[in-house]
Design a protein that fits this description.
This is Enoyl reductase (ER) domain-containing protein. This protein is of the alpha/beta class. The protein folds into two domains: about 1-120 and about 295-330, Alpha-Beta Complex (Quinone Oxidoreductase, Chain A, domain 1); about 125-265, Rossmann fold (3-Layer(aba) Sandwich). It has twelve helices and 16 strands. It has helices at about 15, 45-50, 120-135, 150-165, 175-185, 195-205, 220-225, 250-255, 265-270, 275-290, 305-315, 325-330, and strands at about 1-5, 15-20, 30-40, 60-65, 65-75, 85-90, 100-105, 110, 145, 165-170, 190, 210-215, 230-235, 260, 295-300, 320-325. The strands form three sheets. Strands 3, 5, 6, 7, 8, 15 and 16 form a seven-stranded mixed sheet that branches. The protein has a six-stranded parallel sheet with strand order 11-10-9-12-13-14, sandwiched between helices.
Length: about 350
């Protein structure tokens, strides 16, 4: 089967990545599903892994990919609730290929009429659910500030924040991206390249500040976000897409009894599997009710994956970029280049 592999570390996807023929899994392990991959979301983590900058180190060569949507083609022992042909979505490692094995416990079943390109991303949406509902304990009526609000995880956080009943302030670096945030349901928007983040948040909250900040960006944007917190506000650390890991003066938290809270979905899956299951169930329920609208910037064939990496590295993405396999185009037709349905 075809697989997108990182064959050498580096910043240039054309040099670092190759489509190679690898062995298809022959026997499905106990408790697992074998899935024919139709579509895969490309996230920022994959660009870090390609450059050997991610905290989890994988020896070369390795297959990239953190999530995939496809159809079940084989079922391992002791698996219940799935049938051959079910449309499912799973997350893990090595998903950018034509067939992938997932532990059944972590897989969500999708409605059969779901377009795999627009499947709700476990990586993006459950990250947002875990951060906002489980870690920050965001309450109805509170104010949520989302940094990087037009990106894959940020756009999910805007939608989850609205579902949980918050007033959402979306922050992004361009007017085009802010318009997208408005379409996603944001109540207010801030251009954090041209506006003072702390002052604008204070203006929009009548001087109170934000109750919760969702921060997947880090770098120089984190400290102004901490300063924008209100009394007993919580900043949720998701990642550092802007580059550097920030250093925060802790007196800023002392004076307002604020909190910095980490949110690590992978570790939560390990240490609190039932909590993670509940979060996935929330995602399926909200998606089936039409409350979630996955945002897709671009669709690219698996063979042209370097284009997807370039879009992400150049900060041109809104929502996510999706790779599709030959199997997708045989079943659904060509959608290459098509973007969001917002």
């Amino acid at each position: 089967m075809k697989a997108l592999q990182c064959v050498k570390y580096g910043p240039n996807a054309e040099d670092a990545l190759q489509i190679l023929e690898v062995s298809r899994p022959k026997k499905v392990r106990r408790g697992c599903l074998l899935v024919e991959v139709l579509a895969c979301g490309v996230d920022f983590v994959q660009t870090l892994m390609m450059q050997n900058k991610y905290q989890l180190k994988v020896p070369l060569p390795f297959t990239l990919g953190g999530e995939a949507t496809g159809k079940v083609v084989a079922i391992g022992e002791h698996v219940e609730g799935f049938e051959i042909g079910d449309l499912v979505h799973g997350a893990g490692f090595g998903c950018f290929c034509e067939y992938v094995e997932f532990p059944a416990f972590g897989v969500i079943k999708l409605a059969p009429n779901t377009d795999p390109v627009f499947a709700p991303s476990l990586y993006s949406y459950v990250t947002a659910i875990h951060a906002l509902k489980s870690r920050a304990k965001l309450e109805e009526g509170e104010t949520l500030l989302v940094l990087g609000a037009s990106g894959g995880v940020g756009s999910a956080a805007v939608q989850i924040g609205k579902i949980l009943g918050a007033t959402v302030i979306a922050a992004a670096p361009t007017e085009e991206k802010l318009e997208t945030c408005k379409k996603l349901g944001a109540d207010h928007v801030i251009n954090y390249r041209t506006e003072n983040l702390k002052l604008r948040v204070r203006e929009l909250t009548d001087g109170e500040g934000a109750n919760v900040v969702f921060d997947p960006v880090g770098d120089k944007y984190c400290e102004p976000a901490v300063r924008s917190l209100g009394w007993r506000g919580r900043l949720i650390v998701i990642g550092f897409a802007a580059g550097d890991i920030p250093s925060i003066p802790t007196n800023l938290l002392l004076l307002k009894e604020g909190s910095l809270i980490g949110s690590a979905l992978r570790e939560s899956n390990i240490y609190d599997p039932m909590g993670s299951l509940a979060e996935r169930n929330d995602l399926v329920e909200w998606h089936n009710k039409g409350l979630i609208k996955p945002l897709v910037s671009k669709v690219v064939r698996l063979e042209n994956a370097s284009q997807a990496f370039e879009i992400i590295q150049n900060r041109q993405v809104q929502g996510k970029v999706v790779l599709v396999t030959d199997a997708y185009e045989k079943q659904y037709g060509s959608v290459v280049g098509i973007g969001s349905r917002l």
